[in-house]
Automatic annotation (TrEMBL):
<comment type="function">
    <text>Plays an important role in DNA replication, recombination and repair. Binds to ssDNA and to an array of partner proteins to recruit them to their sites of action during DNA metabolism.</text>
</comment>
<dbReference type="InterPro" id="IPR012340">
    <property type="entry name" value="NA-bd_OB-fold"/>
</dbReference>
<feature type="short sequence motif" description="Important for interaction with partner proteins">
    <location>
        <begin position="154"/>
        <end position="159"/>
    </location>
</feature>
<feature type="region of interest" description="Disordered">
    <location>
        <begin position="101"/>
        <end position="159"/>
    </location>
</feature>
<keyword id="KW-0227">DNA damage</keyword>
<dbReference type="GO" id="GO:0006281">
    <property type="term" value="P:DNA repair"/>
</dbReference>
<keyword id="KW-0234">DNA repair</keyword>
<keyword id="KW-0233">DNA recombination</keyword>
<dbReference type="InterPro" id="IPR011344">
    <property type="entry name" value="ssDNA-bd"/>
</dbReference>
<protein>
    <recommendedName>
        <fullName>Single-stranded DNA-binding protein</fullName>
    </recommendedName>
</protein>
<dbReference type="GO" id="GO:0003697">
    <property type="term" value="F:single-stranded DNA binding"/>
</dbReference>
<feature type="compositionally biased region" description="Gly residues">
    <location>
        <begin position="103"/>
        <end position="127"/>
    </location>
</feature>
<keyword id="KW-0235">DNA replication</keyword>
<dbReference type="GO" id="GO:0009295">
    <property type="term" value="C:nucleoid"/>
</dbReference>
<dbReference type="InterPro" id="IPR000424">
    <property type="entry name" value="Primosome_PriB/ssb"/>
</dbReference>
<dbReference type="GO" id="GO:0006260">
    <property type="term" value="P:DNA replication"/>
</dbReference>
<dbReference type="Pfam" id="PF00436">
    <property type="entry name" value="SSB"/>
</dbReference>
Length: 159
């Protein structure tokens, strides 16, 4: 099984490029704090390269910024290439399958995005454009609608 889940802060804005076939690819790095401190009592940080493809790449490039906290779910990938000196270079990165924006709108350098609704996750299962769930705010409190009645038909219940 090859499954990676990370929560970290972007070290710089995502870089969006396109393949010769026109496929979007975004690359960025997240800084992830280790759960324990080292012998000197300092918390160490890992800097992990992330690659997102297609629509997810466009969304990451549009809405993620340096310093923004994000949760990334994906798979680990290694690849190699020969550099200009002819030396083989190995690269390890996470290929994102799902990205969640974390934190509030206040720590997003791009300002508010009132028309943006990524749905429960940016990786897949998003609603068709034009359909909005007005109770879901990807940047706000996920429990903001707690205590309000839930409109569920009997056909939706599994019992």
């Amino acid at each position: 099984m090859n499954k990676v889940i990370l929560i970290g802060n972007l070290t710089k804005d995502p870089e969006l490029r396109y393949t010769p076939n026109g496929v979007a690819v975004a690359t960025f790095t997240v800084a992830v704090n280790r759960p324990r401190t080292n012998q000197a009592g300092e918390r160490e940080t890992d800097f992990i390269n992330i690659v997102a493809w297609q629509k997810l790449a466009d969304l990451c490039a549009s809405y993620l910024r340096k310093g923004r906290q994000a949760a990334i779910e994906g798979r680990m990938q290694t690849r190699s290439y020969d550099n200009k000196e002819g030396k083989k270079v190995y690269v390890t990165e996470v290929v994102a399958e799902n990205v969640q924006f974390l934190g509030g709108r206040g720590n997003e350098s791009g300002g508010d995005n009132p028309g943006y609704d990524p749905g429960p996750g940016m990786g897949g299962g998003n609603k068709p454009s034009g359909q909005r769930n007005n109770d879901y705010d990807p940047f706000g409190d996920p429990f903001a609608s707690a205590g309000k009645p839930i409109n569920i038909s009997d056909d939706d219940l599994p019992f």
